[in-house]
Amino acid sequence: MALLHTVNKSPYERNTLESCLAHVKEGDVVLLIEDGVYAALKGGRAADTLSSANGVKICALSADVKARGLDGRLVDGVEVVDYAGFVDLVVETDKTQAWL
Amino acid sequence: MSDVKKFLYVNRKAPHGTIYALESLEVVLIGAAFEQDVALAFLDDGVFQLVKGWDTSELGAKNFQPAYTALGDYDIQKVYVEKESLEERGLSEDDLIEMVYEDEDDDWAEKSSIRIVSRQEMAEIMQDSDVVLSF
Predict the structure, then answer these.
(1) What is the band of B3 on the pLDDT scale with cuts at 50, 70, 90?
(2) What ipTM describes this predicted complex?
(3) pTM for the full model?
(4) Which CATH number fits domain A3-99: 1.10.1130.10, 3.40.1260.10, 3.40.720.10, 3.90.1150.10?
(5) Which of residues 7-66 of A touch B (CB under 8 A)?
(6) What would the DSSP string read from start to end of chain B?
(7) Hey, is the C-beta of B60 within 8 angstroms of any chain A C-beta?
């Protein structure tokens, strides 16, 4: 039972990402969307939190990454997906949990 | 004009996730028309508003970043950016957009409006203002 977790809040303003990562299981996918993508910014404090997630695939939504000027500035290991990729993730996993 | 007040617009939110950044810009532009002493402060997630290279085409939203660079034309000369907020986010001044104004006391020389200040200095800037508007 793989879960897709979406995180849409900045890790510098809310504890949403932390709470999400505390509840993920191996094989799950975490998709960063909206202000959630700031978690993947290279050199940022939140990037350390993100790298603590083992056995979990981390993705970031391309439109939100680009809109914020973060294209090419994300930590290694984060897969950038477009809207179609978002849909694929929803289909591939058993259910989706949105961490609001 | 003896009744000029020092206005400080405090920006603490990231640009696209909420409407605060855009609303702040609107209010700053309105305020600039009243010939007050205007300063902008960017701290916490507000520093993300000034990170250069926005491409909002895929998002399908308006790219309002050019509006920040136009603030100099409205005689906004003081843009304070908190150093600690940048560092916590892995950012430096090089990652920010250029913001300039023309200095009428120096033969209209183009100068940077951005001033990187410490958290301590930011606290003093807040103390020193007559009116603080928060976004």
Answers:
(1) confident
(2) 0.93
(3) 0.94
(4) 3.40.1260.10
(5) 8-10, 12-13, 34-35, 38, 41-45, 47, 62-64, 66
(6) -----EEEEEE-S-TTTSSHHHHHHHHHHHHHTTT-EEEEEE-GGGGGGGBS----TTTTS---HHHHHTGGGGT--EEEEEHHHHHHTT--GGGBPP-EEEEGGGTTEEEE-EEEE-HHHHHHHHHH-SEEEE-
(7) yes
